[in-house]
Amino acid sequence: MEHAPLVVVGAGQAGLATAHAANRRGVSPLVLEAADHVGGSWPHYYDSLTLFSPARFSALPGLPLPGDPDRYPLRDEIADYLRDYAGRLDADIRCGRRVEEVERSEEGFLLTTVDGFRVRAAAVVSATGGFSRPHRPALPGLEDFTGTVLHSAEYRSPASFGGRRVVVVGGGNSGVQITAELAGAARVSLATRRPVAWANQRPLGRDVHWWFVRGGLDAAPLRRVWERGPTLVNDDGRYRAAFASGNPDRREMFVRLEGDKVIWADGTVERVDTLLLATGYRPALDHLTPTGALDERGRPLHRGGVSTTVPGLGYVGLEFQRSFSSATLRGVGRDARRVLRRILA
Fold first, then answer.
1. Which position among 9, 80, 173, 311 has the lowest Cβ density within 10 Å, counted as fewest Cβ atoms?
2. Are residues 152 and 96 both part of a single domain?
3. DSSP string, 113-171
4. Is residue 326 domain-shared with residue 252, that is, in the same domain?
């Protein structure tokens, strides 16, 4: 059986940043990735995905994104960047190795993959991130809806939506971006419980992320403050202009679904072809169940990414793990360094 000082579960942005942080500490980790490629979810996002943060604030430690640092990178640029980043690491990255179970042992941990590979490790970082499992909320009538239901994780482009009536659920950045794009081919409404919380993309001529980083808000341990606030949608004016045109429009969340129809809050009944759920993701941490690291709802018990119940276990890439930027390209490296200081001490 193989042994490793550190096993990192996941080779997306969080796992690669963790491997880099381990290298800085003189450790060459074993990285186990379920997919047949590195890069996590990035290669699978919708085709037109554009980051809301400039390239200078969208890179992992030690390797800036090439090109204009003030541009807003596209999905494929990030996927290519992560492949390049992985190739520069001193790490044993094994793709096609989905970790099925992590158990505690006398030597630390015993990890087993779905294909039967087993390895012992002194420490483990679960870096599957917070975007591994599409979240499908319990909307009234959803299970019996006879139209098409998609999660944003399954959406690629508006090519197949021509002439359709589409309702997008969820008022975050991705939901707004997808809604605006679909409006070029379909009749689209964005359904949210609260009005969209627009944020100026470039206040006083600088990107909002510059202000966050410069002011210390980006890295401040204010998780509870951010979680209580509204989801902000960064906009340079294009998206607000799109909604002002009438297609797309924003509507108060519907009351329920019946057959292929939506019953809106004002009592209007309307047939809908497609319901697209831009309702976010949840961490996929089932592999940690045997360790006692999760609560009754499957959520990790941790403080800043360090397990509070299992010594030697850490997390990187969870949304608001410690700060606003914890689940971002620019933030995972900071959290990885902090977590490894604790679990490799």
1. 311
2. no
3. ETTS-EEEEEEEEE---S-SEE-----TTGGG--SEEEEGGG---GGG-TT-EEEEE--
4. no
